[in-house]
Design a protein that fits this description.
single chain, 2 domains, 6-stranded mixed beta sheet, 3-stranded antiparallel beta sheet, 14 strands
């Protein structure tokens, strides 16, 4: 077999009276994005992302830790971020990934809740039915006097 052309992503070979085109198959594109929720059985992981450059934790372990944290679930629910505000500090002072039957509402003077994904568990099998956040986030905290706090969130 004699190579006639070494191309980018392909090669052309001559074998006797035939010419062959050999096309390299590209690896599957990585479709990961910040805050992507992935499932494996009844456990989920969250791809690292930030809120105002603050790395969230899942059960106390940073999402970008050497061994990515995962959470075991047994019932349908929602994956969300809990962003904590402390007066006199940059917002947020901490961000945690949480899982519960519902995303808490409303936001409070000290907590902002951002829904990330919905997971439905049926017959011992989990399926993600919604993925609401696909980028790292920027969030702002505003409060005037005794009025309720207001939060503004945007995707990068």
């Amino acid at each position: 077999m004699k190579r006639l052309v070494a191309g980018v992503g392909y090669d052309i070979y001559e074998t006797g009276d035939a010419v062959s085109l050999v096309i390299d198959t590209a690896e599957a594109a990585d479709d990961s994005h910040p805050f992507k929720v992935t499932l494996k059985g009844l456990k989920f992981k969250v791809v690292p992302g930030t809120v105002n450059s603050v790395m969230p934790t899942l059960d106390g372990t940073a999402l970008d830790a050497g061994t990515a944290p995962e959470k075991t679930i047994s019932a349908s629910g929602h994956v969300y971020l809990e962003c904590v505000h402390t007066s006199g500090s940059n917002f947020p002072v901490s961000v945690a990934v949480k899982y519960d039957t519902a995303t808490p509402s409303p936001n409070t003077d000290t907590r902002l809740y951002i829904h990330i994904a919905t997971i439905v568990v049926t017959s011992g099998s989990a399926k993600k039915t919604a993925q609401n956040v696909t980028t790292s986030l920027a969030a702002e905290f505003f409060k005037c006097g005794s009025s309720a706090a207001e939060y503004y969130v945007s995707q990068a």
